[in-house]
Amino acid sequence: MANQYVDLETLKFLLYKVHSVQDVLEQERYAEYDKDSIEMLLNSVKDFSDKELFPYFREMDEQPAHFKDGEIVVHPQVNKYMKAAGEMGFISGSFSYEDGGMQLPQMVLNASAFIQEAANNYLPGYVGLTVGSAELITHFGNKELNKTYVPKMLEGTWGGTMCLTEPQAGSSLSDIVTSATPDGDSYKINGQKIFISGGDYQGAENIVHLVLARIKGAPAGTKGISLFVVPKKRPTADGGLTPNDVTTVADFQKMGQRGYCTTHLFFGDKEDCTGWLVGEPNQGLKYMFLMMNGARIGVGRGAAAIATAAYHASLNYANERPQGRKLTSTGKKDANQEQTLIINHPDVRRMLLLQKAISEGSLSLIFLTAKYHDLSLASATAEEREKYRLLLEIMTPVVKTYPSEMGKTSVDNGVQVLGGYGFCSDYVLQQYLRDIRIFALYEGTTGIQSQDLLGRKVTMNNGEALKLLSVEISNSIQASMAHDSLAPYAKKLAAKLELTQDVLKSLMGFAMKGDYQRFLADATPFMEFFSNILMGWLWLDLAREAQNALVTGNKENSAEFYESKIHTMQFYFKYELPKTTGLAEILMDNKTALTIGTDKEVFV
Amino acid sequence: MANQYVDLETLKFLLYKVHSVQDVLEQERYAEYDKDSIEMLLNSVKDFSDKELFPYFREMDEQPAHFKDGEIVVHPQVNKYMKAAGEMGFISGSFSYEDGGMQLPQMVLNASAFIQEAANNYLPGYVGLTVGSAELITHFGNKELNKTYVPKMLEGTWGGTMCLTEPQAGSSLSDIVTSATPDGDSYKINGQKIFISGGDYQGAENIVHLVLARIKGAPAGTKGISLFVVPKKRPTADGGLTPNDVTTVADFQKMGQRGYCTTHLFFGDKEDCTGWLVGEPNQGLKYMFLMMNGARIGVGRGAAAIATAAYHASLNYANERPQGRKLTSTGKKDANQEQTLIINHPDVRRMLLLQKAISEGSLSLIFLTAKYHDLSLASATAEEREKYRLLLEIMTPVVKTYPSEMGKTSVDNGVQVLGGYGFCSDYVLQQYLRDIRIFALYEGTTGIQSQDLLGRKVTMNNGEALKLLSVEISNSIQASMAHDSLAPYAKKLAAKLELTQDVLKSLMGFAMKGDYQRFLADATPFMEFFSNILMGWLWLDLAREAQNALVTGNKENSAEFYESKIHTMQFYFKYELPKTTGLAEILMDNKTALTIGTDKEVFV
């Protein structure tokens, strides 16, 4: 049977070979795992996804989550999935043994989540936020909070959310006004939060909100924001639960991800909402951002998963749909010939190869960043941990953005492969296209990620992260030079590394002069440029691994499999990488600042 | 009040000044019109659109057209609009006086339709197909057909459709199997058609289908296709109407354009469906394609209209939404400052300017091509008419494709301007994003247009069309050289013209060798490259007109208006035109043919 939404063979090749999960498994923290146990886990996730996720994907879109009589009606599968996720360890996977977790590496957890999200990008969202909020409690909360909330969350009985956004503030978290008034050992919470994913759903026994709020008298801006646990129902002395004045006032209906609810919550409408401080006062944003790398990898992964599922849907269609004829050498077609399958038309192949290059490349990017994440936590020496922390920091905005932005392009091409059917609700492609649009907005928009990349990560520690990354890429180039067939591509990539230096030199001039606005004005095109080159590196690595296998006669995968990876690398180098030439021209054309100013007349 | 969906000042500047509609009005055919009458007409169209189109746009999406009990339920405004369109001459506009029409130039008709489509891209579709099918009858049908059908269609009482696509054939029209069996003076029609826009709607007195079918015994392929008038109800001897065995069996629900019905029709299910041949047998496809230039301009125009409306929606939001603060010179933000409007953030300005460049540029492209259309029909000499016919032919695939493809990018940026709200159903941006997706599929996909451009239009008449176009562009470059401030841009464009020659030389090598598949394999990237450069030309023209007005002290528009056009041209030359450098690199990297073949292993 054709792959319906994911290709496990490619996933495993990336995980085991290209990004050698073994390097991570060798760290003491992960001593209980080996390749066999990982393999078993991934196969069971795929089985589970086939049965419990993929079959509900279409109907969850057709019967969207919605607000009714003060609560959110969701598909019955949500509760079933949360319970199963608790049982199968999808929620506790990342937690330490001492916290009741499975202490799995991020690489493996990302592989597991990727498979699930490719099958159904709504259900795993409920788990994702429960994990994120429980992690905040285990990392920064006191024992009492841990004891009260975490076990119920890890077993999937209680859901969790992250409550950051407010209507007047949007991405500008320094303008949060939700208040926390000291009240004995706890606080009275008052305010409202919007865009709360998984914020409420019928059948959940309780929902634990991790809320950013400002303690009365706290400093202005981000320095005065604290983090609170605010449950929908608070525990009573007798071990029961009582309503905690958290009201679901509405939901947001959306163009996509309609199976995943987005809510508008009021806290303390009746002055009876209790919150418990997590960690120290005024450290809320810091805590939130310490968990942000993982969250942003998760966003990129979700987009990569949708792009992957869309690729398989398009590929299956193209393999079955006869239409048109091949051109003869004169450019004419012979109407008496049989129709050909559309996969034989070069333009269709080009679109499919683009989908393949983006979706497999994105997964490779996810694994690489997850590996940095693991090694930043679990490497043996502090020096190594710091090295991988810096690499994780610089890759995070890229891993969030590339799959989200290029994933849109990928799915858009997938729609085009189907022609008019791609636009029709009877086919799944339009659903993927609607779903993927949110990922460039989640957890910091592309503009915000791009400013993070150029304004913070590239320059952090005197450019140390960028230097470390350049060493990684240069090592890859060196290794590829050893293969005659790869050397031309390695040289191309080396030239692009030099081009990156030129571009940065041109942009850094503005930062040196103290003109930060000019420095960051083109951060988004820089992100496009930079991530395109990084993907060239990842494809070169992928092709080298395949080439090594061919040369050494490794039979774990077929020769066709290896050759197809090399072919896709060549496609990437021919059709994607050269775009950076034009982007560099854009980034170095700095005579005028056309996007800076407050002049409204520019838009007349 | 801010422009809600269209900026008439820019539209008129483009129509009157940049593309001098006067050149067309001076032709004998249009002698009855002058600038004042055009001005009056456009203002009344805008008034009408404000009242009868824009207010229904959101609800037509929320209550989509749908199939019920054998017919299509549409919004009540559909019938009201068809009647009004008949009365206001929206249907008869393009027809000659002798056919009961208004004999208006295409430039003006496109301006009128553009305003309407920006207000509501569903309702004008019903008119558009009625015009197209009535035009086929007036051009190629006999007197009897003209007398029976055209007057009712022009008054909006009877709708019209174009029935090309069949399930097994898709874009491959040579595989049409709908049959026509001679039966006295007429034919018995039997077959099915899919994707029929406006194919049926409650309340229409009759619907006149223009159907491609194959007369029994006709040659295979496109040479055996004839065109028939097949009404839903056929006229009876006593002047009444009787059902003609045309059955609506289903509709297609779609991700966008939900207010515009798409139907699946059966003809002759009970062997009682009569069709009347239009013109000669086996000439059907030729007739259809003689009307195709206008239809394809119409598709590009619809996309440009949506991109324009989305631009105004984003601009209005950005002008009203406070969020975040401006960067200080150190890169820090001062939380005690007031929030700034998001329009003051460079990244938001970049996205809005991109929307402006694409949407205004697309409208300019529409007017230019419509002008070629008008002059190809109405120029005084045969030589002139032939010149403009060739220019129309080469511009047609571009005018269909650029607004459809880049319009998607434009609206996507518009969604991003709104952040999370852009994804929410409460805001209109997501509706525009869903709607615009169909335009790259309508009337020949982007892949088909690209093959038409490179495989037919660039080479037609020994490259004569391309030569004529090059002369037009060179003239524009020369004229711009006269302005010191424009000369650097003129030089950049001249260099891009040379680059185009290099690219074509590289590609034509394959055609010369008889390798048409290789020649056309990269037709789509070539389209992107070629249309990007043509848009540079159009922006240079636009800026020159503005510069002329500034220099001569023309006060028809404000200085700010003219300066904003020059600013947008600079934006286009900085942020869009350089992309062609990378695209040229892609197009000239011809050592390997990565998208050609029938090897399925490539996708392993």
UniProtKB/TrEMBL annotation, chains A, B:
> Which sequence ranges are marked TM in the entry?
none
The name on file for this protein is Butyryl-CoA dehydrogenase
In its keyword annotation, does this UniProt entry include Flavoprotein? yes
The species this protein belongs to is: Maribacter aquivivus
Write down the Pfam families for this protein, in alphabetical order. Acyl-CoA_dh_1, Acyl-CoA_dh_C, Acyl-CoA_dh_M, Acyl-CoA_dh_N
What InterPro entries does the entry give? Acyl-CoA_dh-like_C_dom, Acyl-CoA_Oxase/DH_mid-dom, Acyl-CoA_Oxase/DH_mid-dom_sf, AcylCo_DH-like_C, AcylCo_DH/oxidase_C, AcylCoA_DH/ox_N, AcylCoA_DH/ox_N_sf, AcylCoA_DH/oxidase_NM_dom_sf
- Keywords assigned: FAD, Flavoprotein, Oxidoreductase
Q: Where is the Acetyl-CoA dehydrogenase-like C-terminal domain?
A: 476-594
